[in-house]
Fold these 3 entries.
Entry 1:
Amino acid sequence: MRYSICSHGTIIGYTDLDIECINENLRMGFVEPTPEGRQALLDATGVHAVCAQQPLRWRDTDEEATRQHLIAFRAASDRREALNLELRDEQGEIFPCAYMRICDHFMEWPPVSDEDDPLNDPDLDPELRAQLEADAADFEEWLADFEEERKADAWKWQHEEPDPRFGTMQYTIQVVLREDGWGEVSGFE
């Protein structure tokens, strides 16, 4: 089924929501922009763009740079929320969902340096260090389990070629059906 992505009654793109997902609560698809939707898609992905242009270092002490970054971040958030995005089916009916997010896969992020890792700070509060290390260990365990499951299920997809659209389509949409369904994905409550 082909869905329309709309902002204030204007179709900004189309999607089939045909990317396989690991959670029944999530639908994903590539976005085919309309000419009218170009600016809206820039606004929909603008928060990530602000973060990518000027990443806020966790130890940044330049208060004015931090203030300007937060102003730009807030403005991008406001533009995104003002879009009031809707997803409509082929009959024009609203597709109910908790929320949706559009991602720009052509955006370039700056490299992360060791300096940006809070665990490399010798002055880090010991209690915070312990919590961060525990969180990192939990994530690594989840990632290892996920990779093990992926390898065990690899036989199911051996005949399939990677989707070529990942290299040619700039935008994807993620549609979350219910907000209460994410605990099942991450394993963290």
Entry 2:
Amino acid sequence: MLSDWKWGLIVTSVALLATVNSWAAELPPELQAVKQQIITIASANTTNTENIPAVRQQLEPLIAQLEAWFIANRPENEVELTQVPWKNLWYDDPDIAFAIDLGILKLEQPRDRIFQVVEDGYYYNVSEFVITLFDQSLKLQNYLKGEYTIIDPAGPETVGQSRRNVIALEFVFNGVWFGTVPRSLPLSWLVQAVDAKLLPTIPIFGPYGVTGRLWNRYVDDDLRIGAGFNTDAPETIDLYLLRRVVTAE
């Protein structure tokens, strides 16, 4: 007999597939092809840090086509579409992942194991660290929390405008725990348990008090293309491509 959480996972997955089919079908066929190009390019370069500027240059004209359609056809439920778990596909923000190699000591945050779980009023960047000392490795789960409000809301009078339903965020917590991110648990349940302190974490240093802005250049039930900046450097716009997921598989 299936346990409650497995039934919940099945129901969530079925609902996700149903909404994918209902909303994504509205995208014109020629833009469906553009969307697939974006996914293909990003997927081929998720872990590649050697060509980030070149990939951004390649992606920008394709993303601009999706964005133009999106801001003219912005879904009324954009905020709800965003408030789900996502997995990193590609990004160029140097503040997220890093690799430190001091010879006997190495620290890495794999780019293909980064997730963002958006809830109502807060979100968690969930990732993994690998610490290697004298060829002995230790894996850690990382939970970085940001609290947010929605500013510059979209409405009938803002059709055709970009940077609407903007997330105004502040990072308020950073913690780790031992092992990798559980792959069988729904990510929403996982971060809710972490946030309620039902699962243990060890607080660590982090970007406490750092503020920023995030908005969607495009979002549907499968793909999210976000952009954003730190409020102390608003001229630097970072790009984030994510795929919708349920678990950390």
Entry 3:
Amino acid sequence: MKPIEVGSSGETGRFVAKLYIEDNLATIEFDVTMKGKYDVDSEIKWNFGVIQAGLKDKPPLCILSVYDKDVMKMCGEILSPNYVRITFQNAPMAREISLKFLDLYIAGKWCLKFNYIYPEGISPFDRKFLFDNKISIDDMDKFSTEVELLDKKGRKTGYKATIIPTLKEVHKGNHTYTYVKHSADTEFDSKPMWEVPEKLAEDEIASLKNIRQNIEQNKIGKPDKVSISRTMLHGLFDDEGKDADDPNAE
């Protein structure tokens, strides 16, 4: 079987994903391409998937990936412990990491990172300059910040845009903690901005276990109907961690 190619966001959809293990957490880092300088749509639709990869002279191996549900194409690759792409470069290691990744995710030990990539001329460094100099920055709400745009020399342009900061969701126990990163050259805040109760549903866990079994047995099974897609948390969950905004929720 021919390996499924993983393309860039420009070729396949709105985002690409990197899957790796960091701090004993199954981590997915999404690079989301924003449509324009006023784009504040943070939603992406994704799910786990399985691809086959390997060298020409060896049988292909099943490896964990992520696909873009809008275009139904794979867009995720496994990274090594030193953050090198290995899905197609080292399939045996990628398969091994895939299995450990799923074990952690099923155990509720995962982290999602969202990098929102804006068009040229709008960069996190602009935001940092404004923040450090207390220039035209509104108080950050839960999802975005309005900033005054600068030119390449750091001068004010008179134009404003609303941009979304880099986010990181860390799940521990039965809670998810969301952290904010204010610019490319700073670390994530040490204290979470939001905390919501959340846990994987039984059907989601069953779907993950099925994917793990397919990888372990080196076969691509039929896709599950259960969706494990997630978007940026909006903090509207009930006591059991269910989406309080879902009109279909019981």
